[in-house]
TrEMBL record:
Protein origin, superkingdom: Bacteria
Pfam family for this entry, one: Phosphodiest
SUPFAM superfamilies (UniProt xref): Alkaline phosphatase-like
Protein name, per record: Nucleotide pyrophosphatase/phosphodiesterase family protein
Amino acid sequence: MEPPQITDIPHLGQVVPSLLAAVGDSGSVNTLALPDSRSAAVLLIDGLGWELLHEHAADAPVLAELAGRPLRVGFPSTTAAGLAAIGTGLASGEHGMVGYTFEMPGAGVLNALRWCSHEHGGDLRGALPPLEVQPLPTTFERAAAAGIEAAVVSSARFSDTALTRATQRGARYAGVHALGDLAARTLDVLAEGRAFCYAYHSELDMLGHLYGPGSTAWRMQLRQVDRLVESLVDGLPPGALLAVVADHGMVAVDGALDIDETPELLPGVRAIGGEVRARHVYTEPGAADDVLAAWRAVLGDRAWVRSRDEAIEAGWFGHTVSDRVRPRIGDVVAAAQGRFGMVRELAEAVESSLIGQHGSLTTAEQLVPLVTVRG
């Protein structure tokens, strides 16, 4: 069985270049055919899948009514990759943020959200400077070069993280604390003139992880997100364009296998990255074929298991995978089907305990809404 074929659906990385082109950046291409505008903003709701939105449309009537078409987020369907797609306009094979955790040659497995060693938690900001991990120009730098004021409106606690530096450099950062100042700061940027704003809301994803997507807590948060979007739409200055997107969907895992407690999966394995729904498996020299065969035999139809070359050839990481990024991809890559999960209960105790997960190639994780509204 092959993963769903959704390559005819636009990619998340197309959103910001299209918005910049709509605001007048001649160096960007408006592949989404967005209307010409005086200023533009993209609001990213972490964890808001297309299928989840339509399953719970009654809790988000504004979003459900305005969501005209889906986007696909690419592999892996996870926050680090999604934020980098917004921040570079590219898929993971080029921007290089190929997972929640992934191996950086010579430095071990990097946790891309915390910028620390996945094995022992040590800070890697010195060993792995953000500009070296993600050296490509950001969409914010491109906006500034085109004379467009670029701003990020996001939680104050993310203002100087390594991931922010890797994916959002070139923007003026406005740190906020709640939904109220998130909306107010975004509208302030849109009113400044020729400007582009990226706004980010993380809490829907957090509650999906903790309680499960579709849980009462998640639905209550979705209602607050819908009010946020309604406030932005109501306050849009004339000529301003708002796009609302997400970085991935989510599924509630029902049935998991502990990798570290499954002896058949471990011979020849040097390191493991990724996350519960999408794994990078790094092998000892000469062991890749045996590891691939073992993972396929054990996981069966619970996961799509491919060699690095097969995953790249199938386009999992986009049309192009650069030589810089290729070694970060596992020698073996496993993407969960259905509601299956590949946990590590001791090595990844917190991550393994979460109900909601994402990262794989299912439409529940891959498809996110695209809402566009012009003031």
